[in-house]
Amino acid sequence: MKILSIETSCDETSIASVEASGGIRAPRFKVLQNIVSSQIALHAPFGGVVPNIAKREHLKNLPIIFRQIFVNPKSKILNPKQTQNTEYKILSTKVDVVAVTVGPGLEPALWTGVNFAKEIHKNHFPKAKLIGVNHMEGHLYSFLLPQKTQFPISNSQFSKTKIFPAVGLVVSGGHTILLLMKSLTEWKKLGETRDDAVGEAFDKVARMLGLPYPGGPEIQRAAAPGDPSSVNFPRPMMKDKNYDFSFSGLKTSVLYYIRDHKEQSKNKNFIEDVAASFQAAAVETLVYKTARAVQEFKAKSIILAGGVAANQSLRETLVKTSKELGVHFFAPPMAYNTDNAAMIAAAAYIQTLKKKNRRITAQANLNL
Ligand code: KG4
Ligand code: ZN
Fold first, then answer.
1. Which residue puts its alpha carbon closest to atom 2 of ligand 1?
2. What's 193's DSSP letter?
3. What atom of ligand 1 comes closest to residue 12's alpha carbon?
């Protein structure tokens, strides 16, 4: 099944063309194209994503990326002036599913993708099925996408390996969720954040330290030479019996620590040590509850997903913990951690197999 997928929920404009097969027991994907146009540089001066700039950029980039994939795949860069008003012929017309992210995300940004999907469906692929996809399901299924390294079992072995029940840890700029998964399509939410998402905490702490947006990769870079035990930041709710998280208190502790050490705060070592200590507190909190859930529910694997899954320290700690617990560990390939359309195609395939329908309209607060 050939899937054309579109992602515009936040600050990445992305279109992918993905070949899916294998069915629900052994899903396999071949990513033919996955173009991601990042708007990070445009939002960075504002310290976060500006919805109207995101909308404007999606509107500009969607037709350019679409033509790059379906009209002129060989040309690396298309000049928007050349392509905007030119008549063009679609190279490949065999598309079975047109899939688009309908939520959660920024409403103006989501609408650009939804409207574009409707338009290309009508004009170019009227026989294809048009389906709306939950962005968080995209993240959750991104571990199924093909990868060259860091994967404990290959996709072809997927069906033979007992991975369920699994504990899913979904960590992004807007979500921090712990799931108990009975299968690829049946799960129960064990807990979630009561305040800030963990990615949001990385972004805010980076800002406090004078590091640019998005903060996650910046904190990771600054933390590498730092001493994670130099500041003993709190691990809020870590020892509580429930599976919820809270990152707002940790963030505030970092704020007070910086305020109380104004003299040193411009110092490179200070930034590195605070970044490393904050990262250690965030990672330990996430891993502690994930491990407890694995033990309580006798899970066979841990599935990590979302933009924060790119964090090296989180990945390494979960790999180590999985080994200690004797369970499998799955995480997306590095290219598919942060927002991209290939993961939307993966979720679209699973959704199609389950014959699940969703309204093709922007749903900013859609739940997992
Ligand atoms: O999934 P995503 O691309 O967008 C949302 O759906 O939110 O996640 C973006 C989040 C941002 O908060 C970003 O700072 C964080 O993921 N992130 C990281 C890393 N790379 C991205 N956080 C920690 N370490 C990283 N290496
Ligand atoms: Zn995302």
1. 307
2. B
3. 3
Enter the tokens of residue 61: 């980039």
Delineate the domains of the chain, giving CATH numbers in brackets.
Answer: 2-144+336-353 (3.30.420.40), 157-331 (3.30.420.40)
Structure tokens at 93: 């017309």
* pLDDT of 160: 66
Task: Tell me the C-alpha distance between 346 and 28, whole Å.
Answer: 9
Angstrom distance (rounded) from CA 63 to CA 68:
8
pTM of this structure: 0.93
Kind plus residue range of the DSSP H or E element containing 292: helix 268-297
What is the band of 356 on the pLDDT scale with cuts at 50, 70, 90?
confident
Rounded to 5 degrees, what are φ and ψ at 35?
-100, 125
Predicted local confidence at residue 264, as pLDDT? 86
Q: Which residue is closest in CA terms to ligand 1's atom 18? A: 216
Please tell me the predicted confidence (pLDDT) of residue 122: 95
Do residues 159 and 183 touch, judged by C-beta distance below 8 A?
no
The token duo for 72 is: 């002129």
In this structure, which ligand is nearest to the CA of 316?
1
Nearest CA to ligand 1 atom 3: 338
- Residue 98: closest CA among 140, 56, 60, 70: 70
The number of the ligand 1 atom at minimal distance from the alpha carbon of 199 is 12
pLDDT exceeds 80 at position 86? no
Q: Atom 22 of ligand 1 has which residue's CA nearest to it?
A: 216
Ligand number, closest to the Cα atom of 197: 1
Amino acid at 223: A
- How far is the centre of ligand 2, averaged over its atoms, from the C-alpha of 262 (Å)? 34
